[in-house]
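Example record for the data management plan.
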Amino acid sequence: MTLSLQTCGGATPAGEAAHPVFFRGFRAHAQAAAAGLLAVADVAAARYYQPQRSAWLYPVVTGNGDRLRFESFSGCCGVYARLDMLGEALDGNETGHGTTNIDVNTPLRDSLTRVGPAGPLSLEVGPDELTVTAFEGPVVEKKVPLPDRWLRGFAETQVIASGFDPRAELSAAEAVRFLRTLPRQGASRGAARGARWVVPAGRSLRATTRPVPGAVCLPGPERLAALPRVLRHAEGLRVHGPAVTPDSVPAASAWEVRLPGMRLTLTLSPDASRGFSGEGGVLDALASQESPEDAESVSALLAWDPAVDIADLAAHSGLGPQRVRAALTRLGTPGRIGYDTAEAAYFHRELPYDTGRAERHNPRLRAAQALVEARAVCLDGEPVTVTVDDHHHRVRTDGQRVTCTCRWWAEHRGSRGPCKHALAVRLARQAAAGRTATAPNPAVASPGGLR
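Corresponding structural encoding:
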């Protein structure tokens, strides 16, 4: 299998380039690679919540110096897929740096489906089109811009996944056995609601009706329907998720299938009806006053490394690890940062968007800014009152925990980020602090002041 990938202009370690080529060469394990690419395309073409026929969308490809990453979101934005082709699977060919998006539509899917264990396939991504050449001849497809919802999804998944730890590991045989018991897309509503939680049991996983320590949420098991495509090549399965207690609400989880020289990971949102684009994990970073400057400092140090070293960035930027993580969260809003659960590390990609675009397309942040501009926030006392029309909402801050009396908070209890009222209070407090810091001291600023 031969790959030739290049960006449509963009940043590289050597500076800006018009068409930086970031991989050209042979691809080992061609059939497994084709299956992995098809699985990423399956997710991009699927809509798991309120299923309907989706138009083909456009997986993102990133070269990170020693690997290629192919990423996509489902049409409902509730499933994030990533195929990592590692150096050992790239047959020793040099891998450069860059990001682009490719079209995977019916002719290309047909070509990938026909790839055999030793079948040849040439794939080239150029400035304006994708060309695939197999036995049947070349297939050419044009590229289009990525949806804004994908941009917000990239931002949210790196925040959510950074809170995961490995929870279970299955052999190839046990992985196949477990995954084949799950309902597939199109299953009945009752089947789709099957196992909400799974817990390690011997060499496999068993379903449980409630969260217990060590359990992993499996929200909408039919959303793992893309994994069976690669099971014949699987070498094992690892499951990642956050720590849970008996009182935990449904949570996101990541399901990683190890392939020869590759990893295919599907990350599921906490509920089939919830897309990653609305989770709100980046809102605190977007509302922070210091994160823009911190993000600018950290941005200058990013070097397309396959794994971003937090300690190294902290040492070179002069910021503490916590501020570096907040800066990376903010850099993730224009899609510049991702998170690899397998290596528990951030990675660098470049998309042609700025942070302002993510802010402009975030409805909760825009609503909070509008409340501040309308002077709807009264900072006198605790709790703080936020007035919307004839309703008064009370926002209370207790250490790091912020609560509100609004309906959003009652429904989600902070599991989907702050509500617009809490965000408005934070923005108003930052604005007030800024005014206080820049106000002149009357004792020294005027001739008539105290001496």
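Summary line stored alongside the record: The chain is about 30% helix and 25% strand.
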